[in-house]
Amino acid sequence: MSPLDAFWHIANFFAPAWAVAAMLALVVKLLWRRQLASTTWARLTLAGALGGSAGLIAAIWLLGHDGTIAGYGLLLLGVSLPQWWMTLKPGR
């Protein structure tokens, strides 16, 4: 595998976490406009993306491979928990 292939392999592995985090941040920012006025969309996205990436890594570690329903559940849990926490404590 060439370095370029390895890059694309890793980027495609983390792409669902980053895409779900961006979409959830947009929805959260629209629904809780007042509570999250001081929190930027980028900050919500980054927190969710890092949590989702950790969820994907945990799925690989716990289950041995990706692409399972349990793995996607860990992804969603990893994306939603940081954004939920930031909704409770705006300005972080």
CA gyration radius, whole angstroms: 14 Å
Shape label: elongated
Mean pLDDT: 91
Residue share in helices? Answer: over 70%
- SSE topology string: HHH
What distance lies between the first and last C-alpha atoms, to the nearest angstrom? 41 Å
Percentage of β-strand residues: under 5%
Main beta-sheet strand count, sense and barrel state: none
Count of distinct structural domains: 1
Q: Which class best fits the helix and strand makeup?
A: mainly alpha
Overview of the structural elements:
The protein is an all-alpha fold and 92 residues long. It has one domain (15-88). Helices cover 78% and strands 0% of the residues. The protein has 3 helices and no strands. The chain has helices spanning 3-31, 41-63, 69-88.
Features:
78% helix, mainly alpha, 92 residues, 3 helices
Topology diagram in text:
Blueprint: H1 3-31, H2 41-63, H3 69-88
Helix pairs in contact: 1-2, 1-3, 2-3
Task: Give a quick precis of the structure.
By secondary structure, the chain is mainly α. Helix content is 78%, strand content 0%.
